[in-house]
């Protein structure tokens, strides 16, 4: 599975374009030349195009590189403006910030995000309510609701934070026993136990993209549960193959306790993480600093 493109890679490419060389970019960024070269190579691999042209005299941008540099220059300028704005708001943000969040995302990701936010804004006291239902911001006295949803036509402003990626996974022990499926049809032919999250099924089927085509396979759930955290624990107990959000599964994939299967078959169901708040209250330093911070924090640190 390819890691997500990071803001650091944008900075590296921009510095290469500005200085005309990898070594000079490395010096200005305080990185080693090999780290700069690796960052560039990874970005080119992810995009599937060459961004620079190397000669004995200089490094220049290709046509794709020039277009990409123009786009990321605007992004980096926006980030710099955001940092300046947050710096100005730092001394103004103080008091109680009330956040509502889904249980799974709150338990798996929000701890680190809020910890870093409070390091930047130490005079803010954060109150978190974990609930999988979308709360009424007025009745619940909530300032910001973090929700994974497709419904953004309500009365709130919805700031897109990240696209949620899902993976099929199981423990190595389970796969050693039942076999590693190489195509979705193996899920039935190898008689796998399927741990199903209802929102990831469409009329009783898992749908996925493969080679640019949308395909589907009917699934018979050995267990169905509306909690991705619970499904993770069932998977960790060697009970079967689960379709899990990467923000829940990534630490366990990283340490090898669960293994991704069918990496070339991307789940087709699309979910997005939003920060929801009343637009009229966005000028409140508490709300603005948190929404801007979490957006930037996810962009720069996301490994899911």
Describe this structure in words.
The chain is an alpha/beta fold and 304 residues long. It has three domains: 7-88, Winged helix-like DNA-binding domain superfamily/Winged helix DNA-binding domain (Arc Repressor Mutant, subunit A), CATH 1.10.10; 93-161 and 278-301, D-Maltodextrin-Binding Protein, domain 2 (3-Layer(aba) Sandwich); 166-267, 3-Layer(aba) Sandwich (D-Maltodextrin-Binding Protein, domain 2). Helix 1 crosses helix 3 (33-47). Helix content is 42%, strand content 25%. The chain has helices spanning 7-19, 22-29, 33-47, 63-89, 103-120, 172-178, 186-189, 228-236, 246-254, 285-301; strands at residues 52-54, 59-61, 95-101, 124-130, 144-149, 157-164, 166-170, 194-196, 205-210, 213-218, 221-224, 241-245, 259-261, 266-267, 271-277. The strands form four sheets. It has a five-stranded mixed sheet, covered by helices on one side. A five-stranded mixed sheet has the order 11-8-12-7-13. The radius of gyration is 22 Å and the shape is globular. It is built from ten helices and 15 strands.
Q: How many angstroms separate the termini?
A: 11 Å
Broad shape:
globular
Number of helices: 10
- Fraction of residues in β-strands: 15-25%
Order of helices and strands: HHHEEHEHEEEEHHEEEEHEHEEEH
Number of domains: 3
CATH class of the largest domain: Alpha Beta
Q: Taking strands numbered 1, 2, ... along the chain, how are they ordered across the largest sheet?
A: 4-3-5-15-6
- Rg for CA atoms: 22 Å
CATH level-two architecture of the largest domain:
3-Layer(aba) Sandwich
């Amino acid at each position: 599975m390819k890691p997500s493109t990071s803001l650091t890679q944008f900075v590296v490419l921009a510095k290469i374009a500005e200085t005309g060389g990898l070594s000079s970019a490395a010096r200005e960024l305080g990185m080693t030349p090999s780290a700069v070269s690796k960052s560039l190579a990874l970005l080119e691999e992810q995009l599937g195009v060459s961004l620079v042209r190397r000669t004995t005299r200089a490094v220049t941008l290709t046509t794709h590189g020039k277009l990409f540099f123009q786009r990321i220059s605007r992004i980096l300028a926006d980030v710099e403006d955001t940092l300046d704005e947050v710096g100005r708001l730092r001394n103004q943000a103080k008091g109680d910030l009330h956040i509502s969040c889904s249980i799974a995302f709150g338990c798996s990701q929000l701890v680190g995000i809020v910890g870093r936010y409070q390091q930047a804004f130490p005079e803010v006291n954060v109150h978190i309510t974990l609930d999988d239902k979308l709360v009424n911001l007025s009745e619940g006295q909530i300032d910001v609701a973090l929700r994974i949803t497709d419904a953004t036509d309500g009365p709130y402003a919805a700031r897109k934070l990240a696209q949620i990626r899902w993976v099929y996974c199981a423990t190595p022990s389970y796969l050693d026993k039942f076999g590693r499926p190489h195509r979705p049809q193996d899920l039935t032919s190898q008689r796998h136990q399927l741990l199903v999250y209802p929102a990831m099924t469409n009329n009783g089927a898992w749908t996925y993209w493969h080679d640019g085509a949308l395909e589907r396979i009917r699934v018979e759930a050995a267990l169905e549960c509306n909690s991705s955290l619970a499904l993770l624990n069932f998977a960790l107990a060697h009970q079967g193959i689960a379709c899990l959000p990467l923000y829940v599964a990534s630490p366990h994939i990283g340490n090898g306790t669960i293994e991704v299967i069918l990496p070339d078959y991307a789940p087709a169901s699309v979910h997005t993480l939003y920060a929801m708040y009343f637009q009229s209250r966005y000028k409140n330093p508490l709300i603005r600093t948190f929404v801007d911070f979490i957006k930037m924090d996810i962009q720069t640190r996301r490994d899911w």
